[in-house]
Amino acid sequence: MAEMNYGVDYSDIREQVARLCSHFPGEYWQNLDEKAEYPHEFVNQLTESGYLAALIPEIYGGAGLPIRAASVILETIHSHGCSAAASHAQMYTMGTVLRHGSDEQKQRYLPAIASGELRLQAFGVTEPTTGSDTTQLKTRAEKKGDQYIVNGQKIWTSRAHQSDLMLLLARTTPIDQVAKRTQGLSTFLVDLRDVRGNGCEIRSIPTMINHNTTEVFFEDMAIPASSLVGVEGEGFKNILSGMNAERILIASEALGDGRYFIDKGVAYANEREVFGRPIGQNQGIAFPLAQAYAQLEAAEMMIRKAAALYDAGQDCGEAANIAKYLASEAAWKAADETFQTFGGFAFAKEYQIERKWREVRLWRTAPISNNMVLNFLCQNVLGLPRSY
To answer: What does 272-341 look like in DSSP terms, one character per residue?
Structure first.
């Protein structure tokens, strides 16, 4: 089998990340999956190598790289069977802090995040009763003197147990007192070290994959007024840049997962012989893998377009959402067809197919459902009537 070379840009980064990943084989991830444990060793290696600080400007101790470089880092991690889901939020939450944070916040937190002294991994937005309807969230932050008092609940806040800081979206003005429902929301950079057990309770949510996600409860949680990121009431706009970055980076992870499955599926189809010939000689096996490969190639081009627009400071909402949609669907196609290629052996944990198959299914649902991506395109791109 000819070795497939997917990367044509940032080849040095690809090689270095691949070398790091080689120290964390499938058995490492399988063991963590069975115990539902966080990959501390892997995340520490990413941090020490500077990859999690890729988007932090050099002035704050980061690499100051464009989002395309971050995209390559995450794609490479996933194409080698590892998972960046334990740490990727640190990249896309940077957009909100960098673009809207105060000089004091940047000076205080970014160097420590870049060095690994602090972890910013938790993004508190989703709530049990609102889901993707972000403007209807019920968590309230009321200003009292030099503090904000926070009450409410978040769900699917991944990595809260492993984070020192959380980017939190809360309503500071009741929805019935604003002209537009996107108004009156504010973002806060919360130091979880100060509030755990002091107005903030974090509970793990057992899931079908090892995603280290939680629900977070706030009861009269007091945070300094200086925790506010940007202007009060403009938090929804503040997180949009972070969400576009999130779409691009998650798409890159999905692309990497798809590459992983294509490599596995093709190798197995060449090696496995039934009825005296390799199963890859059968079009019933070969065509689905080829289709998945073609879809991944198309998704990569949209990821590149979205990253280029983002790095140029242009509107990338359409491209970022399409990239996430195409990459997640293509990755699932690659995963499912490779599962089918392996047949019964796909169910055996030693082959590392069933675990990754479970993981890849997430991308069609999170961080946003693909149906909501289609809603976005219908309303904001095609000009169709709003359906929700």
So the answer is: -EETTEEGGGSHHHHHHHHHHHHHHHHHHHHHHHHHHHHHTTS--HHHHHHHHHHHHHHHHHHHHHHHHH
Answer for the pair 67, 55: CB distance below 8 angstroms, yes or no. Answer: yes
Residue 272 CB partners (closer than 8 Å, separation 6+): 278, 279, 280
- Smallest Cα–Cα separation from 241: which of 232, 251, 249, 233? 249
386 in a domain, yes or no?
no
User: Which of these three, 76, 95, 115, is where a domain ends?
Assistant: 115
What is the residue-averaged pLDDT of the chain?
94
Determine which of 69-78, 121-130, 194-203, 285-294 has the lowest per-residue pLDDT on average.
121-130
The reply to whether 299 and 217 lie within a common domain is no
Q: Is 105 inside a domain boundary?
A: yes
**pTM for the whole structure:** 0.94
Quote the CA–CA distance of 143 and 214 in Å, as a whole number: 26
Length of the chain (residues):
388
Banded pLDDT at 96 (limits 50, 70, 90): confident
Percentage with pLDDT > 90 across the chain: 89
Domain end, chosen from 221, 236, 251, is at 236
Please tell me whether residues 51 and 64 are part of one structural domain: yes
